[in-house]
Amino acid sequence: MQYNSGDTAWVLVSAALVLFMTPGLALFYGGMVRRKNVLGMLIQNFAVMAVVSLLWVWVTYSLAFGPDAGGLGLIGTLHFAGLGHLNQSVPGFSGSRAQSIPPVAFIIFQMMFAVITPALLTGSGADRMKFGAFLAFIVAWSVLVYAPIAHWVFSPQGWLAKLGTEDFAGGTVVELNAGLAGAALALIVGRRRGWPRSLMRPHNVPLTVLGGGILWFGWFGFNAGSALSSVGAGVAFVNTNTATAAALLSWIAVEKLRTGKPTTLGAVSGAVAGAVAITPACGFVDTLGATLIGVAAGALCALAVSLKFRLGLDDSLDVLAVHGVGGLIGTLAVGLLGTSGALGANGLFYGGGLSLLGHQALAVVTVGGYSLVVTAAIAWVIKKTVGLRVSESDEQAGLDLSLFEESAYDFDASAGTRAAGFSHQSERREL
Question: Is the peptide bond preceding residue 196 cis, with omega within 30 degrees of 0?
Fold first, then answer.
């Protein structure tokens, strides 16, 4: 088969952009945790890159995109395990959906989605998880949760894909999945000691803004790359930027109305919420739809942040509020605002009736429910066997010192021996 060199180049560049999002996420989250836990956050994200990359080529790519096992659309076989049969076309992508890129380019691109999704969960269990237990959790979660859901939605042989569910770049597979999984993980691992009585403020907002900027940049590969074509990427690209911009302004407008002042953290969180919400819809809506999705995501995700306090759920860095709620908004919005003038079917507001909206709602319920239940089961098993969280003294000291014998900020070097001793003791106290 003859492949398009331009499409192949675009997809490979997009894959690199999506991989860059994980270090960006590490900085985004790293700035939001307390000073004593920032390296713990960074190493968790980098470890996800390594663990999931190996899992993907050996097992999970085949489970997600291999020939359907049993014809039920639930999971792939191990036909492509270890990247065997590498030159065979990806099952289901034929006819009008035939790919113009070699299979290995598709494998690489989808690998980066498999990496960034569990990386999002580092924000839910922040400040308190054992490193080894976290790695075990990521392995089990990638195999038992991510791979099946990716098969359902992303593989043309998946049952939701065959039903007619539309998810351009991962509103269900990545965003909603991570949001509900994050809630389950936070529930099982338990609250941080002192939460919610103690204010656990971000220690470095500029670091978070830098990470947020990298995420915005990388999201163009995430969404526009999902067109798998350089020609078809333009709509997804402009819609991604439009929704992200609208959500940033919407979030800080809500903050202004509620507290009288917008915040920098709110601005960058709003941008991420908008990018999340447009992810499933970026190739299926027009400019008006992208703008409305951004406005809704910025406002509703800002309001959703307070839910964790009402529920008593210590989702440390608001993965549920931003990714879960944002993914929900975007997925359902396809059923309302989708237009055949873009790349998908017409939604309710464009004369398409309730059919597409029903398919989108079913995807929300099944993906969200499966992710919530299976993630909770995985976390519970690990908790009851090797344990999920560090000891009280280690949590009090911070993960950087207690798990890694490192500190992100070397105050000792400039403060002298006497001040160094004080700094070391301060490092081990609650910030």
Answer: yes
Residue written as tokens 């959703």? 304
Question: 255 CB contacts (<8 Å, ≥6 apart)?
Answer: 261, 262, 263, 266, 302
Q: Compute the distance between CA of residue 223 and CA of residue 234 in angstroms, rounded to an integer.
A: 10
Contacts of 160 (CB under 8 A, 6+ apart): 73, 152, 153, 172, 359, 362, 363, 366, 367
Domains, in order of start, for the chain? 5-385 (1.10.3430.10), 392-427 (no CATH)
Task: Tell me what pLDDT residue 184 has.
Answer: 98
Read off the pTM. 0.94
Q: Which amino acid belongs to residue 317? A: L
Q: Which residues, at least 6 apart from 393, have a Cβ–Cβ distance to it below 8 Å? A: 402
- Rounded Cα–Cα distance for residues 306 and 201 (Å): 15
Task: Return the ∠ at Cα 80 (arms to 365 and 116), rounded to 5°.
Answer: 50
DSSP 230: S
Whole-number Å distance between alpha carbons of 297 and 299:
6
> Using a CB cutoff of 8 Å and minimum separation of 24, what contacts does 135-138 make?
135/47, 135/51, 136/382, 136/386, 137/185, 137/378, 137/379, 137/382, 137/388, 138/47, 138/48, 138/51, 138/52
Confidence of residue 97 (pLDDT cuts 50, 70, 90): confident
Q: Render pLDDT for 316-341 as a digit per residue (tens, 0 to 9).
A: 999 999 999 999 999 999 999 999 76
Instruction: Phi first, then psi: give them for residue 156, nearest 5 degrees.
Output: -60, -15
User: Could you tell me which of 239, 242, 207, 211 has the C-alpha nearest to residue 224?
Assistant: 239
Q: What is the DSSP letter of 316?
A: T
The string of DSSP codes covering 258-277 is HHS---HHHHHHHHHHHHHH
Asked whether 182 and 141 are in contact (CB, 8 A), the reply is no
Residue 26 CB neighbour total at 10 angstroms: 24
